[in-house]
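Bug report (template v2)

What were you trying to do?
Predict the complex of my protein with zinc ion.

What happened?
Run completed; filing so the output is reviewed.

Input:
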Amino acid sequence: MKKRSRITIKGIVQGVGFRPFLYRSAHQFQLTGFVKNTSKGVILEVEGEKQALEDFNAYIIKNPPPLSLIEHHETREIPLEGSERFHIVPSEDTGQNDLLVSPDIAICANCRDEMFDPQDRRHNYPFINCTDCGPRFSIINSLPYDRPKTTMEKFPMCPQCGKEYGDPYDRRYHAQPVSCYRCGPVLTGHGKEGEETANPLDKAIEHIQANRIVAVKGLAGYHLACRALSQEAVVRLRELKGRETKPFALMATLEMIKQYAHVSPKEEALLQSPASPILLLKCKNNDGIAPSLAPGLANMGFMTPYTPLHFLILEKIGEPLVMTSANITDEPIIYKDEIQSLSGLSDYILSHDREINIFADDSVAQVVNDKLYMVRRSRGFVPLPLKIPVQTPHTFLALGPMMKTTFTFLYKGKALVGQYIGDTDSPATLEAEKKAVDHFRNLFSLEPTHVVMDAHPGYPNRELASQYPNAQVIEIQHHQAHVGALMAEHGMLKPMIGISMDGTGYGTDGNIWGGEVFVGDYKKLERFGHLKYLFLPSGDKSAKEPWRFALSVLHELYGPEGKTLEFAREMGIKGEQVLETIKKRVAGIPTSSCGRVFDGVGVLMGLGKLNSFEGELPMKLQALAESAPKGSKTYPYGLENEKKLQILNLMPMIRGIIEDRGDRAEIARAFHTTLAKGLVKMATKARNEYNIETVGLTGGVFQNTLLLEMTVDLLKQEDFSVLIHSQVPPNDGGISLGQAFLAAGQLLNKEN
Ligand SMILES: [Zn+2]
Ligand SMILES: [Zn+2]
């Protein structure tokens, strides 16, 4: 008996080959009807024998195209229409969007093979792509996803491309950015004075080979590229970018990467995944790599080429390239063709006329325990949704903290975490956040009913809240938000112990928090304990100049004379002034920050006195510790009860470190071990009191994978079940997700 049903499928179902898949499947099951894209999702009507309809339905759910994501699927029987064939009908815009968007996708193997095939009509074509690869998020203006709503609008297809685009059996069927030499974008090149030159690709290669810096337009922003093996080039790049010592990421083929770094099978898979992130890999051998690339660190960041243009460049250069986001100091990545700004940063600009609609930096990740461990979630992952186990009728917009900010929209059981924005203490970055938020609002038709922000009264992104006068404002404490992010990512609704080891954030008691332990769930999270408060002189200055905090630690241990005075004098007149403020406890504030403890220990161990980039000393401390053999050495620490809070006192440990004349690497390792043990002790106390078995580890300090692995191991030995991050970073890039989730929880708590 014949039947007809109407099927609605929502999720990532556009721009990923979903309709041709349905078309081919309908034919395979001998069904008639149609399929169309709407702003509510893909809608299809199929007519045929009852059994065939059922088989078809089961088949499409089970075998969707690899890049698609079915979030919702609904079938309903409708009257027969006697249709005679199956066809694809034009898209329909129904206003209210309920669609998701695919992230930008690295070039696929098929396209790469075609590009390098001298017989192919797209041989060496820098914009080759197909249904399985190419730009998506960065070129879409609005939904539903169709060429006229992307920046490909201005490139009418030639007959041949049109044929591929229109053929459901072609692998370029409805690939919106499809193009070729005859009809697509073209490369352009600009010299130092902004003058346009012929043969842009060859010119760019020449410049790179001559150790100069070339700005290269990528998928979602510009890179600055140069030879990674040339000290001269890297020094020049540092000059132009105004970046002293912060490491640069490299782009290289997998084969090249393996010469320099250890690559596990999981890492190999991630390097070549559609998201193609920068992976932090353990150095194996840095022979030939410019010494000033990543001085003194044990990891190097590598990614593989992910656009056709990257492949063309690497193929000609034949060695690893530095590929770093093109941006002016403290400003977001450049993604428009701002020739003037770019020529200040580079010697040559390799660009093209396919516009980038919205920016996204490269994502950065690591592999921990054979799983993805995110450091910066951006290109390739954004705007993939995260499933949230709570349904709320509200739409939350969380604006993130100030540093490494992201934003999150939470609605209808999902969270869309926006791309990496950066530090919003700069007006240009704040503007970028506003732009990206507005882009999401338009794209996904979202209007926030609740705006969530950090409890810090001085964070600039608070300003963005004024755009939503009708939305209710909710504040979430910084380190609670870290725990909230972990809960959201794991769909954790039950109470847990949340250990949030971080830099600094505003605490609800007016102090600066940053080494916190909480107990509770997403509806109610309470402070259980923290690292002992220590006086943080000079406020925010201490993050960049950690000798200030080291001086405060010395004062705490030894008083104002002796070692302390000696150290202050070593720092010159400034040192003596800071010591005065410490003595009087003025111009500073108590802090429980764990990041500052790492800084302080780094200084006291002689690794440096300044952080020329965030986390420099902590990273050096980690690298030093990793160079030591495994050992059981620890230092003493205290656990004290103060006003109903558990206080982890690390001062005995720091005294031990200062007075230890032993091997420095072993000391650094023992520091990590002691901290891990102290945290486990806190967790055990919390378990005894609340009978909770699950512990979550979050906060920027847990980017330190040595500390992370040590703490996880110790917790498991004590039979805890342990949660760590994967999809969102432990650092402040994860905060907006936690803000949104905890705000939703608070509201549910109130409404019940
Ligand atoms: Zn492809
Ligand atoms: Zn064409």
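What did the reviewer find?
Residues 544 and 612 are 7 Å apart (CA to CA). The mean pLDDT is 94.
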